[in-house]
Every structure is written in C-alpha cells, then in structure tokens.
C-alpha cells in the first residue's frame, strides 16, 4: 500500500498519543527532521519517550521538544555535548529520565526490532553500570549481556527524495539512523525535500523501500532555510 501523502507536517502527525515512544532520525543536526519535530511539539502530546543518538542541540529540534515539557524520557548514546544545555539542565533537576545506550547497541536494538528479533547478546557494556540488571551469558569463553529490541510507536525520519510509493533515498550523512528506524515503528513518517512520480528514482538507489513508510510530507526546509532557522534559534538563547 502506498503511503499517505500529506500537505503539512502538522497533518502528518495528527493523533500522536501521550506516552508514545518516538524514534527520531539524526546525528546531531545531520538528518534531523526539524519540520516533523516542530509539528510534534505543536501537537501537544506529552510524556513522550524519545529515541535519538543525542539529547538535543541548542534550542531547536529535539531540544525545543524537551524544553516544551513534552518528553518524559530520552534514550540515546550521547547526551552531554556542549550545546545540550536544555536536556542537561532538566536532567540535573530530576525532571527528565535518561537511558544511556552505547551507540552500536542502540543501532542494533532498533535494527533487531525491525527484523522481528526479540533481543541479542553483545559484549558491549559488560562489567559496567550499563549491564546491571541484565541477563549475562558466557559464550565460547566470553561474557555477553542480553539487550532487547527497541520498537516504537512512531518514527520520524528525514530523507532527500521519495517517490509516490514511499521509496526513499538519503543525502550523505543525513542517512544515519533513518533506514533502521523506518523498519522499527508502527507508523513511520518521512520528511523529504521532493516527491517524484514512481519511476523517478533509480531502483538501485532506493535505501528504504516504500513498504516501511506510512506518511510522506515534502517541506521547503532546504539547507539555506535550515541555516537561517538555526541562527534565529541560537539568537534566542
């Protein structure tokens, strides 16, 4: 079934419930679906569990969602970069939860969910606080810890181009977590710069097949507009 193509990011995110777990693509600002995140914030859903590599940058995107009081918990691998002051302040005040996950483990937990795998054993984290309370097993003389799949209610991703069947291609490092997140959510929404007719994308270039995409929205937030919006956001700090 082809995805629903909507006119605005707000229309794409109608009906997101309180308490939803949301996978959000992006590695820092690269590939972060700002238009969808802003729409999620405007939609008013609360007590969200947000999964991303980071815990927000500056005052925009995920950081703005956190600052608006919409997020109960962040699951990420890198929460403490120099411009994560929104999350850092709330975490120190005990107003938001953090689940710290090694970056490779985070990616594999999401991939496992998309592949229908309930969990996997990894040596990463063994002997650290991150392994406390988790099942341990020795395999071929090496100790492993059990990590469970990380499935979500909603995935928000950014791609460069889509066709009307929902097939996606990405642009350089903006790809990051997008392909695995698209497979691991009940509903996947993709923000793209351009939607073309079926046949407008070389099949050999497709990264995310349309079967994983439920809603599509094209936005005009290109590199120039994005840079301008980030400058304005930082000026309000």
> What is the CATH homology-level superfamily?
Glutaconate Coenzyme A-transferase
What is the residue-mean pLDDT, rounded to a whole number? 93
Could you give the order of strands across the largest sheet?
Answer: 1-14-12-9-2-3-4-5
Order of helices and strands: EHEHEHEHEHEEEEEEHEEEH
Helix content: 25-40%
How would you explain this protein's 3D organization?
The protein has 237 residues and is of the alpha/beta class. The protein has helices at residues 9-12, 34-43, 62-67, 85-92, 103-115, 178-183, 223-235; strands at residues 4-6, 21-24, 48-51, 71-76, 97-100, 119-122, 136-139, 142-148, 152-158, 161-163, 168-169, 185-192, 194-196, 215-218. The strands form three sheets. An eight-stranded parallel beta sheet has the order 1-14-12-9-2-3-4-5, with helices on both faces.
Highlighted features:
alpha/beta; Glutaconate Coenzyme A-transferase; 237 residues; three-stranded antiparallel sheet
Concise summary:
By secondary structure, the chain is of the alpha/beta class. Helix content is 25%, strand content 27%.
